[in-house]
Structures are given as structure tokens and as C-alpha cells.
């Protein structure tokens, strides 16, 4: 039976010099708080391009560049307080998934002085400052969905804030802002995008539309992985026309994955990967990809999961078995943990809702077994 349910409220601009096409989107207030990390937004040229447009239109702007990887809730709260103090009336997030996720939380805190740190997870927040998002990596797809994954400081765990109002007003995607990314980091973000696509496709919440985006993204990513496997320097020369085309494909694919999970959410590789990111510094994309083989293995035990995996792999001109080997291999994570650490890491994420979001729902014992085989 056809399921055509679909919701995507973000106006999206894509392509070279997309910011020029979207210039009027930045003219939406009198003072912008620009949310970034310390270096990447400046290095890739996006920050200068944005501030030039704001200056041209006489719009005040303040840089909040305190966002690190796995953005902390306390830092987002600080950013919201600064927005209120300055009278900033819109937020521009520039960077990878961390600044984009943080921008959403800051938009909530910046609009409501009575909102506490913990409130952000417990209510459907309607009062938010307008948000413009400009990705400089090709991974999370955060620019087109309403998820904001934050790290709770005192617990050192990740938790997701989302609201029906936490979507960006506009997303502006220019592949040239990824040209300064190293090959290894580019690969990690691409693995995150691939995990979004396969986990969304298998989700019981998937629809014809979400599966269409998942397949579109996965195909481009799989072709890119083959190119990188054949030539490890395939992304190295950003002046090469073929490299530019490949990076454009990666950005389009990551955006498609973001649209897909906007409908479905993600599966169990995401929460299982959180602990090795927070405690061992494994980049998020690689941390998720470590568990893709197990995700495929367990879902192949389920009739629905098996059927969907064969359909997914067929679209990529491959097999579930090859995907199960290739994605963890590309992640290249070799980590040893003692028995206490393995149990602690699983205990940190055992309550995540993602486990129910696939045809086969793994048990706590199976979570431990996956960790025991991966990190012994």
C-alpha cells in the first residue's frame, strides 16, 4: 500500500554560489547571532561570505564561535543568553552538524528567558528565533531536519532536542564550503550520511517519499565510496573538476539523508556509537559505521528487514553482505575496551528510542554481545 506522508518545511538552496541565490533569506532581522566552531567556517570562506552580505544590508552581527564537537547543552544555553542580551532576532548556523544542531538550541534559548536547560527536552517549544543553516560538511543533514543532538555536561551523554518549530527558515548548501575538508574527515561525515540512508530505509516509519530520498542519497554515497576505495586521494585536489563533482554529490546525498531521517529517525548504530564518540573521540560518522554490519546482520533475521535490505542493496548494485563488510571497513575503528567499559558504554545508551526503529529490535544482551565482539 502506498504511503506518501511527507513534511519538509525548509526552503533549500543548493549549488555553487548558493548564498547569492539565497541572499534575501539573510535579510530577515536587524541583528544576527552567527553560531560556528572556532575555525572551519572562517577557513572555508562561508563566514566571510555571510558577513559580507549582512554588512551590505546594514544588518548587525555577532560571532558566537564556542561550539565544539558534540555541542554541550551549557554552551548552547550561554549562546541563547547572549542572543537575548544583544537583542539578536535571528540565528545563522555555519559549520558541520555540531554548529547546526547548536544553532537550533540557541534559537530556542534565545527566544525565551524562562526556558531552562532541561526544559528544552521536555516540551514542544514553539517560541524560537528564525534560523538560517549553512553546512560546511556533508554528513548530518541537520540543515533540513529538526533534530539537535546535544551533550549533557554533567552526565556526558547525548540527548536529542526537537520541536515542530526547530526547522531552519532556509538551508543554503554550497559544495565549495567542503573543499577545505581533509579526506579522512570527509569520509567520516559521508559514512554518517550513509548510515542515515540505510537506517531510514529500514525504519518501520519509512514512507515512499523517505525511501526515495534514502535510496537517492545511498546510491551517490556508495559510488563515492567505490571511487575513494579505488583512489584514496580521490577527494584531495579541490581544483579538479571530477573532485568538485564528487563533493557536490556528497553534499546532495547528505541532504537527502537528512530529509529521510526527518520522517523516520535513525536506527541502533547511532546510539551504540555515541559512547565511543564521547569517551574515545571516535568521529560520529565512523562511530555509527562501526555498527552497520551488525545492523544488517540482525535485520537479515527478520523477513521484513531482509526484504528491504535486498531491495536497498539492489538499488546500489551490490549485496547486503558487501555493504555489511564495506562500511565498517571504511570506518577503520580499532578499539579495545575492558568488560566493565563495554557494559558501561552500553548502559549509557540502552534506553534510546532508536532500538525500536528497525524491523529487528535488539535486546540489551544483544547490545552487549555486539560491543563484546567489536571491542574485545
- Count of runs of 4 or more consecutive helical residues: 15
Poorly predicted runs are none
CATH topology of the largest domain: Dehydroquinate synthase-like, alpha domain
Main sheet overview: 6 strands, parallel
DSSP summary, beta strand count? 8
Give me the CATH superfamily of the largest domain: Dehydroquinate synthase-like - alpha domain
CATH secondary-structure class of the largest domain = Mainly Alpha
Question: In percent, how helical is the residue content?
Answer: 40-55%
> How far is the N terminus from the C terminus?
44 Å
Tertiary shape = globular
> What portion of residues belong to β-strands?
5-15%
Number of domains: 2
Structure characterization notes:
There is one protein chain. This protein is an alpha/beta fold and 376 residues long. It has two domains: 11-177, Rossmann fold, CATH 3.40.50.1970; 182-375, Dehydroquinate synthase-like - alpha domain (Dehydroquinate synthase-like, alpha domain, Up-down Bundle). Helix content is 50%, strand content 11%. The chain has 15 helices and eight strands. It has helices at 18-21, 40-43, 46-56, 73-86, 97-111, 183-202, 208-230, 241-264, 269-280, 284-289, 292-299, 303-315, 320-331, 339-349, 364-375, and strands at residues 11-14, 31-35, 60-64, 90-95, 131-135, 147-152, 157-162, 170-173. The chain has a six-stranded parallel β-sheet with strand order 1-8-5-4-2-3, sandwiched between helices. A two-stranded antiparallel ribbon has the order 6-7. Helix 5 (97-111) links the parallel strand 4 (90-95) and strand 5 (131-135). The protein starts with 10 loop residues before the first strand and ends with a helix. The mean pLDDT is 96.
Amino acid at each position: 500500500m502506498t504511503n506518501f506522508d511527507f513534511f519538509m518545511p525548509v526552503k533549500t538552496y543548493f549549488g555553487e554560489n548558493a548564498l547569492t541565490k539565497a541572499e534575501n533569506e539573510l535579510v530577515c532581522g536587524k541583528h544576527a547571532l552567527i553560531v560556528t566552531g572556532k575555525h572551519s567556517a572562517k577557513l572555508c570562506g562561508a563566514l566571510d561570505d555571510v558577513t559580507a552580505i549582512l554588512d551590505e544590508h546594514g544588518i548587525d552581527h555577532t560571532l558566537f564561535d564556542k561550539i565544539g564537537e558534540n555541542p554541550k547543552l551549557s554552551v548552547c544555553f550561554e549562546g541563547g543568553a547572549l542572543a537575548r542580551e544583544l537583542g539578536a532576532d535571528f540565528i545563522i548556523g555555519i559549520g558541520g552538524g555540531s554548529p547546526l544542531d547548536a544553532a537550533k538550541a540557541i534559537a530556542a534559548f534565545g527566544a525565551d528567558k524562562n526556558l531552562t536547560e532541561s526544559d528544552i527536552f521536555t516540551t514542544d517549544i514553539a517560541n524560537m528565533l528564525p534560523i538560517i543553516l549553512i553546512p560546511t560538511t556533508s554528513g548530518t543533514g541537520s540543515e533540513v531536519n529538526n533534530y539537535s543532538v546535544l551533550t549533557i555536561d554533567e552526565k556526558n551523554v547525548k540527548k536529542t532536542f526537537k520541536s515542530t518549530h526547530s526547522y531552519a527558515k532556509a538551508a543554503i548548501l554550497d559544495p565549495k564550503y567542503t573543499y577545505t575538508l581533509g579526506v579522512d574527515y570527509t569520509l567520516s561525515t559521508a559514512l554518517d550520511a550513509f548510515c542515515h540512508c540505510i537506517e531510514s530505509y529500514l525504519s518501520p516509519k519509512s514512507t515512499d517519499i523517505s525511501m526515495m530520498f534514502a535510496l537517492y542519497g545511498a546510491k551517490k554515497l556508495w559510488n563515492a565510496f567505490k571511487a575513494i576505495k579505488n583512489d584514496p586521494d580521490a577527494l584531495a585536489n579541490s581544483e579538479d573538476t571530477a573532485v568538485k563533482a564528487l563533493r557536490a554529490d556528497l553534499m546532495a546525498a547528505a541532504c537527502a539523508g537528512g530529509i529521510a531521517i526527518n520522517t523516520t529517525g535513525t536506527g541502533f548504530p547511532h546510539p551504540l556509537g555515541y559512547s565511543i564518540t564521547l569517551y574515545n573521540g571516535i568521529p560520529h560518522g565512523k562511530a555509527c559505521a562501526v555498527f552497520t554490519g551488525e545492523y544488517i546482520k540482525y535485520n537479515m533475521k527478520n523477513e521484513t528487514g531482509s526484504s528491504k535490505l535486498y531491495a536497498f542493496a539492489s538499488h546500489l548494485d551490490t549485496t547486503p553482505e558487501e555493504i555489511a563488510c564495506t562500511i565498517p571497513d571504511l570506518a577503520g575503528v580499532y578499539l579495545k575496551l575492558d568488560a566493565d567499559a563495554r557494559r558501561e558504554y552500553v548502559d549509557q545508551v540502552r534506553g534510546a528510542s532508536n532500538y525500536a526503529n528497525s524491523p529487528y529490535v535488539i535486546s540489551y544482551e544483544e547490545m552487549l554481545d555486539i560491543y563484546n565482539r567489536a571491542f574485545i
